[in-house]
Amino acid sequence: MISLAGRDILHGWGRFLLTGLGLGLLIGVTLSMAGIYRGMVEDADVLLKNSGADLWVVQQGTLGPYAEPSSISEDTYKGITGMQGVARAANITYLTMQVREGVRDVRAMVVGVVPGGPGEPGQPGYLIAGRHITASHYEAVADVKAGFALGDSITIRRNRFRIVGLSRRMVSSGGDPMVFIPLKDAQEAQFLKDNDALLQQRRRTMDNPLFNRPGVPGLLEAVIASQTTNLYVNAVLVQLKPGYHPEVVTKNIQRWKQLQVYTQPEMRSILVDKLIATSAKQIGMFLVILSIVSAAIVAFIIYTMTMAKIREIAVLKLIGTKNRVIASMILQQALGLGAIGFVVGKIIATLWSPYFPRYVLLEPGDAIRGFIAVMVISVLASTLAITAALRIDPAEAIGG
Amino acid sequence: MKFRTINKKVLRLLAVLVPLFLLFVYVALQSGPLAPVPVTVTVVEKKQISPVLFGIGSLEARYTYRIGAVASGRIRTLNVEGGDVVHAGQVLGEIDPVDLDEHLSAQLSGIKRSEATIKTTEALLHEARAKNEFAAAQAKRYELLQQARAASAESVEAKHQEAAIASASVSAAKAGVNAARQELASLKADYQGMVKQRHNLKLIAPVDGLVTSRAAEPGNTVLAGQTIIEMINPKYLWVDVRFDQLQTAGLKAGLSAQVTLRSQSNRIFSCSVQRVEPLADRITEETLAKVVFSALPVPLPPVGELCEVSVLLPPLPAVAVVPNASIHRVDGLIGVWIIEDSKLHFVPVRTGATDRDGNIQILGGLKPGATVVVYSKSELHAGTRITIIKNNPKGIPL
Predict the structure, then answer these.
(1) How many CB atoms are closer than 10 A to CB A229?
(2) Do B324 and A136 touch (CB under 8 A)?
(3) For residue A350, what is the DSSP state?
(4) In this model, does residue A353 exceed pLDDT 60?
(5) Which residues are within 8 A (CB) of A303 and not within 5 positions of it... i.e. 6 or more apart?
(6) How far apart are CA B49 and CA A59, in angstroms?
(7) For residue B283, with 0-12 CB atoms within 10 Å meaning exposed, 13-18 middle and 19 or more buried, which class applies?
(8) Which entry of A299, A362, A387, B379 is 20 to 30 Å from B357 by CA?
(9) Nearest-Cα residue of chain B relative to residue A121
(10) Separation CA B228–CA B91 (nearest Å)
(11) Closest by CA position to B167, among listed B147, B146, B138
C-alpha cells in the first residue's frame, strides 16, 4: 500500500523540513522557558543544599538569612552547639555586593564561612579547580560563573582576596555567583563602613560633648573603638546528629534561645514561595502563553499546508479515495511535523542553554511531557485541517 | 525513472533526518541526568606535609612611652612634633609653673635671711662667751679677795651669780645658733623640694626614641596623668598577631615565621615567634602571639600597619595525603569518593592536619594507592556515571 502522507512529504520535502525546523525553534523556545522556570527553583534548592545545614537559626521574627536581613551575636553558636541533638553549628554571613577584579566588577553573594575545613556547614560542596580555603584570612573560593580564575586577586571592600578554588552551581536564589571568604573578613566586609564614613563618624563623635569630655581622658577613644567593632553574624547553620528529629531540636532552640529556627522544608518554602514566587509566576505565565501560541501556530501551519493541497485532495476524492485515508494522511503529516519540531526544539534548547546568564534546567520529565503535548497539539491542530479537507468538493479538481 | 526520483528524494530526506535523530540521541545522553559527570582523580600518596599557621596582626612598638603631666596644669611649651627623633633626657615640653618660680625666689630669700640669722646668733654667742669668761674671772678674783679678807661674802656670791648667768647666756646663745642652722637646713630642703617640683613640670624623654604623637598643644589644660607626648623606641618593634583558634595547634615560641606588610605585599620579612600570649581573646576566639623581626624593615613601616603572618611548623610524619578538594560530606559523614573497578564509592575517612597548599592528612579509612576523585563537574552520588579527565591539574574544563 502506498503511503499517501509519505509521498506527499517526499513531494515537498524541503518545505516540510523547513516548516519542521521553524516549528522546532518555537518548541525550543518553549522548552527553554520551562528550563528557565525549573532553573529558578533549582537555584533555590542548590542554595539550601550547598549550605549543608539541617536547621537555620536566625534573628527572632525574621525570615532570614536569604529572604530578610538577620543579625545575631556571633557567640550564639556556642550555646546552640551544646544543645541536645546538635552535631555541628557554624556561623555564616551572606552579603550580596559588587566584587571587584581589576577594572571590572561582578555582582556576587559573598558568603563568610568558618574556615574549619571541607564538609563543615556552609563550605562549598565540590570544587572544579583549586582547593578549599586553608588560611583564616584573605583567601576566596568563587563560583566559576563569576568569571574569576585561580590566582586572581579580587577586592571586597578594602581587602584583597586571592582566588584559591573554583566551585560550580554555588549561586544565590537570585542566580548571583557565590564567593566564599573567611568569616571574620566577611563580618568586616558586611559591617565596615568606607573610610570617609568612618572619618565623618569620628568627627561627629569628637564634636559631641557627651563623648569628648575634658575631664575624662580616654573616653573618646573608647567610644570610637566601640563604634567600629562588629560581633554579629547573619545566621547559624546547624547539622543534626543522626536520629534526632529536626522539629524537636527546633522547638528546643526556639524555646530556650529565643531565636527563629527554620527546617529545610520551611526554608525551601520561604525561598520558593516567597523569594522567587513573583518572578517564577511571571515565567510560568509566559510559558502558558508561549504554549498556546505554539499550539495555534502548529494548527495554522497544518491548516495552510492542507489548504495548499485543495486540488490534490479534490482529485483524490474524485477518484473515490475514502475520507479515512485522506484524514489519516493529514494526521500523519501533522504528527511527523510535530516529531521533527520536537527533535529540533530539544536539540537547540540543549545547545543554547549553557549560554543563558542564569541556570537553565532541562529535565527529562519536561521533555517527555513536552513531546506528549506537541503530539496532542498536532492531533488537535490536524482536526481543523481534516474538517476542512473533508468539506472540499471533488468538483474543485476540474473547476477553478 | 520515477522510482529513481523518489528514491533520491527519500535519500535526501534521510540525509537530513538521520543526522538529526543521531544528534538528538547524543544531546539526550550528554546532558541531563543520563550524562556522565567529568571528574579528575588522584592517587593517594604517603608524604610529609608542613602545616602553616596563618594569622594577621599589626606592627606594634614593644615599648610605648606615654609622657604626661604629673599634676594638672596648662601646657606652656612643646618642643617636639610627631616623627621627631629625641634623646634620653631631652626636654620635650613644659607645664606652666604658674607661681612656682615666685615661690622659689621667696624661698631663696628666706634661706639668705636664715643665713643672716645664723651670723647674728653666732655673734650673740661670741658676746655671751666673752661675758661668761669675764664673769668667771671676776668670780675667781673675788674668791681670792675673800680669802685675803678684802671682799665681803655677799659680793663674792654676787660675782658667782653673775658668772652663772653669763654661762647660761652662752648655752642660750649656742641653742640660738643651732636653731638658726636647723631653720636654714629646713629652708634649704624646702627649696630643693620646690626645685624638684619645678623640674617635674618638664616633659623629659626617658629613652632615645621617636615621637609618635603629640596629643595636646600649648595652652591646653591637662589633667594629672593625661598623655601629652607619646614616643616609642623604634629599635624594638614586633608584630602583634592573632591566630584563629581553629588553626593554632603547634604554635609555640621559637618557630620561624614570614611576615608580609600590607604596604609591601611582594616582600617577605623573616621573623620568629617571640611568645604566645598566655591569655587568648575570649570574644574573637583568637590566640595572640608576638612575632619579632630578624632584621627591621628599612625604611621603618608605620606602627599599626596591617601584617600577614605565616608561621611554618615542622614537617609532620609521612601519612596518606589527599587534596582537600576531594573531601566531601555525605549523609553526615566526612569522606572521599574513591574509584574501584570503575565504580564510584564513598568512603568515610578521619582527617588530620592541612597545609597551605590544601593537602590534608588522612588518618584513617583510606590507604595509599587508592584512586580518589578530586574535582567533579557536579555533585556525585553512589552510582553516578563518571568520565575521568586525565592529567589536568587546572581542574575540570568547562
Answers:
(1) 11
(2) no
(3) H
(4) yes
(5) A381, A384, A385, A388
(6) 42
(7) exposed
(8) B379
(9) B329
(10) 13
(11) B138
Residue among A179, A128, A168, A180 nearest A359 (CA) = A168
- What distance in Å separates residue B22's CA from the closest CA in chain A? 10
What pairing do the DSSP bridges indicate for beta strands A159-167 and A139-143? parallel
Q: Which three cell numbers stand for residue A219?
A: 573616653
Question: Which chain A residues contact residue B376 at CB under 8 A?
Answer: 126, 128
Name the minimum distance, in Å, from the CA of B13 to any CA of chain A.
7
Is residue B184 within 8 A of residue B115, CB to CB? The reply is yes
Q: What is the ipTM of this complex?
A: 0.76
- At residue A359 the predicted structure's pLDDT band, cuts being 50, 70 and 90, is confident
What one-character DSSP code corresponds to residue B396? -
- Identity at A289, one-letter amino acid code: I
Contact B377, B360 (CB under 8 A): no
CB B241 within 8 A of CB B289: yes
What percent of chain A shows pLDDT beyond 70?
Answer: 95
Distance in angstroms (rounded) separating the CA atoms of residues B134 and B146:
18
Residues of chain A with C-beta less than 8 angstroms from the C-beta of B58: none
Partner-chain contact B223 A351, CB within 8 Å: no
| B73-78 β-sheet, strand order | B202-204, B91-95, B73-78, B221-222
- Specify the amino acid at residue A156: I
Residue B31 has pLDDT above 80, yes or no: no
Rounded distance, CA A68 to CA A25, Å? 40
CB B90 within 8 A of CB B261: no
Tell me if chain B has a CB within 8 Å of the CB of A174. no
The reported pTM is 0.76
Q: Would the CB atoms of B325 and A127 count as touching at under 8 Å?
A: yes
Positive or negative CA dihedral for B126, B131, B134, B137? negative
**Cell triple for A5:** 502522507
A61 touches chain B (CB under 8 A): no
Can you tell me which residue has the cell 559573598?
A110
Question: Model confidence over B244-256: pLDDT tens digits?
Answer: 887 788 899 999 9
Strand, helix or coil for residue A284: helix
Question: If 0-12 CB within 10 Å is exposed, 13-18 middle and 19+ buried, where does residue B393 land?
Answer: exposed
pLDDT digits 0-9 by tens, B32-44: 667 788 888 888 9
B16 neighbourhood in chain A, CB within 8 Å: 17
Please check the confidence at residue B99 and state whether its pLDDT lies above 60. Answer: yes
Q: Are B353 and B249 in contact (CB under 8 A)?
A: yes
| C-beta neighbour count of B112 within 10 angstroms | 11
The Cα B297–Cα A328 span in angstroms is 92
Nearest to B331 by CA among B379, B293, B285: B379
DSSP per residue, A108-120: EEEEEE----TTS
Does A168 contact B at CB distance below 8 Å?
A: yes
Helix (H) or strand (E) holding A154: strand A153-156
- Do residues B292 and B271 make contact, with C-beta atoms less than 8 angstroms apart? yes
Mean pLDDT of chain B: 88
CA distance B382 to chain A (A): 15
**Separation CA B189–CA B178 (nearest Å):** 16
C-alpha to C-alpha distance for B223 and A213, rounded to whole angstroms = 12
Q: Which of A52, A129, A168 has its CB closest to that of B378?
A: A168
Q: Which residues of A touch B257 (CB under 8 A)?
A: none
